[in-house]
Amino acid sequence: MTTEDGMRFAFLMENKTNTTGIVAEHGLSVYIETEGKKILFDAGATDLFAENAKVMGIDLAGVDMAVVSHGHYDHTGGFPLFCTMNDKAPVYIHKNAFRESYILKDGELYGKNDGIRWTEGETEMMKERLVLTDAPLMITDDMAITGTIEPEEGFTPTERFYYRDDDGNVTEDDMSHEQCLVIRRPEGLYIFSGCSHTGVLSALKAGKKLFPGEKVAVLVAGMHLYAASADERRRVVDELVAEAPERVMPVHCTGMDAICELRNALGDRCVTAMAGEHFREHGERDERV
Fold first, then answer.
1. What is the Cα 51 distance to its own chain's centre?
2. pLDDT tens for residues 110-124?
């Protein structure tokens, strides 16, 4: 990565890669440099994001702050290692992100916990680094974390998760711990969304609400459309086209059908980013690294 002023970001982890020496896994991690700040957005499912960072020439010890998009394992698995490699960066995480997360089968919690899988020792080691969020939080005049993203009226999730609440009741997770990172640049807003469990359109609009009147330069988002119906995918694609971001980068849990439909609708304005790739302003691929 370069250190000059401007926007630069790179995918340390994504579900797919086409770069020699880079590994992929079901997860997401993005490294961002802007206006002298170095930011880590999510940390993949395992420590593999850090191995990719080394291959890519990115020094995680120099990161100034980290943001957790939501409390699922495939976005949080690498944070214990990150906090041993970096002794300064605060980690912004929603206060509700620590719920366990399961699917429901025959009225009972089923399968492996899809939530955060840190051990007690890892959580204890990191606790002084964690900054709990809820409402929108302005980091600087040009950088914000949305906090809880309210779903649009009529939104129906494509996948539901459940946990056992403090009273022992099986409860559907409202995914109130999903949050976006929003960065304002002269060319417009950069909105980073991990999975958009409450809807990618809700995430986009929550980001725009923090900076009224600003256009969206780049939307980087896992859109959680892999299990959506064809009608739902088409609705989301049509509304994204109407919102007119300069560039859309569907990643991670979006699903190949939705990625292809976005590409058909947006042409070169839709970029299929992969682990190991670097980008600059306007979401242009950066070969100068």
1. 19
2. 999 999 999 999 999
**What strands, in cross-sheet order, belong to the sheet with 137-140?**
137-140, 143-145, 180-185, 188-193, 216-222, 247-251
Q: What is the pLDDT of residues 161-194, one digit of tens each?
A: 999 999 999 999 999 999 999 999 999 999 999 9
Q: Token pair 């992100």 is at which residue?
A: 97
Residue 5's pLDDT is 73
Calpha distance 177→164 (Å, rounded): 16
What whole-number distance in Å separates Cα of residue 20 and Cα of residue 29? 18
By three-state DSSP, how is residue 120 classified? helix
Burial of residue 219 (CB within 10 Å: 0-12, 13-18, 19+) is buried
Find the farthest-apart pair of alpha carbons in the chain and give their distance in angstroms, rounded: 55
Nearest to 278 by CA among 10, 39, 57: 10
Q: In this structure, are residues 83 and 126 in contact, taking their beta carbons and an 8 Å threshold?
A: yes
Query: What pLDDT does residue 156 have?
Result: 87
